[in-house]
Predict the 3D structure of the following.
Amino acid sequence: MLMLKCPNCGVTAEETEFVPGGEAHLTRYTSGSDSQAFSDYLFARKNPRGVHFERWRHAFGCGKWFHAARCTATLEVFGTYTAQTSAPPDDILKAIKAKRPEWEGFK
Amino acid sequence: MSARLPSGGSIIDRETLVSFTFNGKTFKGYKGDTLASALLANGQTLVGRSFKYHRPRGIMASGVEEPNALVNMGQGSRFEPNQRATTTEVFDGLTATSQNHWPSLEFDIGAINNKVPGLLPAGFYYKTFMKPQWAWKHLFEPLIRKSAGLGNAPREADADRYEYFYVYVDVLIVGGGMAGLAAAHEAGASGAKVLLMEQTANLGGRLAVDEAVINGKPSADWIAQIIADLEAMKNVTIRTRMMGSGVFDHGYAMGYERITDHAPNDTAPRHRLWRIRAKRIVTATGALERPLSFAGNDIPGVMLASAVRDYASLFGVSAGERIVVVTNNDDAYRTAITMKNAGLEVPVILDARAQANGPLPTEARALGIRVEVGKAIASVKGYKSVTAVEICSQAGEGTPLETIPCDVVAMSGGWSPVVHLWSHCGGKLNWDEGNAMFSPDPTRPPLGADGTGFVLTAGTASGDLCTAPALQNALNAGRQAATEAGFSPVESAAPVVVASAEDPMMPVWSMPQNAPYKLRSKSWLDFQNDVKVSDVRLAAQEGYESVEHTKRYTTLGMATDQGKLSNINGLAILADALNAPIPNVGTTTFRPPYTPISLGSIAGEARGALFKPTRKSPIDAWQDANNAIWEPVADWRRPYTYRRNGETTAQAVTREIINTRTGVSILDASTLGKILVKGPDAAKFLDLVYTNMMSTLKIGKCRYGLMCTENGFLFDDGVVARLSEDEFLCHTTSGGSDHVYAWMEEWLQTEWWDFQVYTTNVTEQFAQIAIVGPNARKVLEKLGGMDVSSEALPFMGFSDGELAGIQARPFRISFSGELSFEIAIPAAQGQAFWDRVLEAGEAFGIMPYGTEALHVMRAEKGFIMIGDETDGTVIPQDLKLGWAVSKKKADFIGKRAMEREFLQREDRKQLVGLLTENPTDILPDGAHAVEGGKNRYGQENMIGHVTSTYFSPTLNHSIAMALIKGGNKRMGEVLTFPLGDKVIKATVVDPVFYDKAGERQNV
């Protein structure tokens, strides 16, 4: 059971306080968009062994969504950050790179 | 025969006798005894029957690793099967019975399995019971069901109480032996908050049995001193009878505390599950002795060497009178020495090694004990108890050299560190060739949130089997844990330990080394599941190369002891059969809990009414007092109907419907979800969330809206009211409010975070009371207050004011098709308003109605119900709700999906009404319509199913709604619903059965 820090309220709490929301930084495809792009938006999710960006909600706390950068293999948490961004911020990327020099970067 | 020794027993209280029964026979024991030690003290060596062969089994171990001595404990509501006699403390009045035999422990019919060779080999369930086919159902399955499983299931609800504890500590120490105490002392002295747990009732672990001199003190004094030191530290908590059950991600651990198992009259909860977060976890879990694999090693009287001396030292019990020791290491000599010193006979020590000249063998020889090196047991004689051993050369094939009468065989195949907790969360192991064991690799620990290891091992659990290095290792572990948890421990002086040195052991996986099949097929590995050396060899021969597969195929290590004794021996046999090195074969996965924990402790207090609390409306108490027949609706309970004197439920529903259609009725609609959406971008936001256009809604007006997922599927509906330019009140389904609220927040926070919108869930802030029926307005007028005329408050309008002096917001919306006012009242005044309405309505015959009348009336009107007409694959257009899907909006959630070809097909399942040919035939919910021909499975072609079905008292006719393929084009068709022995035919009609023009609600 993970421990995560909510970047909104600053509380570090048990996983049971949070609700996972799947892959972060999806691009929404809307009316008129390409059929394959829309299908991928709906159904195609990354499932990496290693660095992953996820959405979480502090459901039994402040109620806010946030993002977590996490290693799916070791469960190491590189950092949590605001949900109001379409890409991981630089400090998170740096933190990951420091721990996982071989990581290819956010795509 | 086993018996109580005249003296000795460091943890029993010979002054306090306790009385208990085993299989109905009364025995005496002492306070401090386990059930196992007390049974042995009374000469009861036969305690159970094995799982497959029903062989007689006795007590083999003295702790959690015991595979055989499982008993049924207690009676009635306190009955529990599979309780380990070795970890059950006796108390006055304890009742236990043995398991897995019929008709009795002494004479068991099932033992015939033992006499038919080859009947139940490895994987027998894949090989037998195949033919003839009929026999499975009528012969094999009933027999297997009767014989499967150990013990009996309890038949009554558990009378005991359980609870959780949540704690946060700096350092958690699992194990209260020498290592755990030492590590706790070092961590505690640094100021760290320390929790130490010990699964037994006593601290000290093996050091209490295998004595040494530490810093000039006998071990008993050292233990007493360190306990006193720890008790003096306010930051250290010690709990006994508490097992470290599991280690999980990020420093999470579980402790299982047995509070009243030994004291049943205590009023405390029986078990407590501790949910612990620790910065560092130190596993000081010790080591377990391994059995040796020789023929007849399961006969009662064959025991672990350490257990034999535990019973003598701790409980003053001799396991027998003539004890043969068989070993591959020096440690087992301690048993011979202990027993000899207790005045018992030790006719021989059989040591598989070529020589034994260390201090312990020397001491044994000095006591006059015969030591035979290079020797082994060819086979054990006896059936219900050991009578003798035949000895042979370890190097040979088991040719007997000599028969030595004895009643106990004390065996030792070496020791394995308890690595379970280290491994639960990913700690890796190394193979220690010298000690023939897996031990934790400190460079590959389980990793925490910060990527550093959070589990350390201490003492023998680290793989240091001798006292001096184990103690040093534990002190280091305690300090390291404290340091890593942010404290500054003080380095103490290295301990001075005087203990017997030990020569290297020799791995012995098969005894004798080249045992033929005849011996291998009587050499047990897993005593509880009856898996033998021959079974593992057979599995390897049949191609089971992976240890995980072999485990499942042979059931090795799958019993309630999870292979604590059998796993290493089993995988060594597998490695040998595969001709592979042991570390390449590897271990099976260690999973929590370490030993079985009670289901009650997992449930904790979440039982009965606390399992899932019920949400209640402000009118709940009144309804409960007025014959409400409750039904669950999401987390709520709502009245299905209100039965009056002598009515059936169906009669009550009919009365409520007719009263509503012809007079006036009242409904508690408080469970309806209510979400306030406010802000400069509220209208823009709702245009995206609803399929309809909400931005054009006028202030003071209501509009029915639909919500879809991005897949285009309908998931919630409700009426939206515009309170002001920038404020909307969105009604949701009763079960959907939390989800819709979270849904809105998700989109606002993660996609449209630039929108200036606030949402808040006000579901429980308001009671919602509907006054419904042709006389509804008259009741409101009688209540007095605001203008409720059709001019001031037209259909699909709302206004704020007062009714009967209470703040009220009536909405002119209708789910029944009748003139209807749904009135929102501040929750605290809901009951008062309800009472006033009943008073005012009395003259008009007002009565409450429940959810079933509501359902029937909405079906009469063809209104859909989320969850009935929708199932997560239905789009609004399927339900003739295309009018509520905006074609003007550039975007809304689900719009892109609706552009998909598949969602536009004309042969999708579409909503239709159904009238049965016979007006009193009611179609069952979910009934399938079929249409000629067969599908590729030879079944009738199904074209759709019934989604709602009722008898309509208004129309005096059965009515139904269904989703039927291409339903829009089937008006007037007669559909066939085969229902087992009969067929119902129904005509496709418009789903609006009543008042198609909607005149009744718009007055």
User: Anything to note?
Assistant: The interface with chain A takes residues 248-252, 277, 426, 447-451, 710-711, 742, 745-746, 749-751, 753, 890-891, 895-897, 899-900 of chain B (CB under 8 Å). Chain B has five domains: 3-114, 162-287+417-498, 291-414+506-585, 652-890, 905-1003. The longest strand of chain B covers residues 162-174.
